[in-house]
Design a protein that fits this description.
The protein is an alpha+beta fold and 125 residues long. It has helices at residues 94-103, 109-123, and strands at residues 6-12, 15-29, 32-37, 43-46, 51-57, 62-67, 70-74, 78-83, 86-88. GO terms for molecular function: ATP binding; proton-transporting ATP synthase activity, rotational mechanism.
């Protein structure tokens, strides 16, 4: 039976946020939400502003990242999330981000960043 895991790297210009084995990811791209399992066909997609990436690790644990733009690269053996900016959902103050959503102009950078952070927290709640 084929291995059902793949190597996942989540990186931004200033750090490597995650490196490990995963069984499934969900990523919001500019053409819609994608779910990817091991052995997926090669793919390059643009990550949506205000989006998130949710990871199911090989251990079964789930984590998510707020992601502001960038790219998702899928090869036969690995997936790399090359984010313009990214943050672990566990590090986000969701109440503060919801307040920003209420006060920021829809579509502004502040709004999109807050939306991304709220979505990431909700993805693993």
């Amino acid at each position: 039976m084929a291995d059902k895991t793949f190597r996942l790297e989540v990186v931004s210009p200033d750090s490597e946020l995650y490196s490990g084995d995963a069984t499934f990811i969900v990523a919001q791209t500019t053409v819609g939400e994608l779910g990817i399992l091991a052995g997926h066909s090669p793919l390059l997609a643009e990550l949506a502003p205000g989006g998130f990436v949710k990871v199911t690790e090989a251990s079964g644990n789930q984590t998510a990242f707020a992601v502001q733009g960038g790219f998702l690269s899928v090869t036969g053996e690995s997936i790399t999330v090359l984010a313009e900016a990214a943050q672990f959902a566990s590090e986000i103050d969701v109440a503060a981000e919801r307040a920003v959503l209420e006060s920021a102009e829809p579509g502004s950078d502040d709004y999109l960043h807050a939306k991304s952070r709220v979505r990431a927290v909700e993805a693993v709640s």
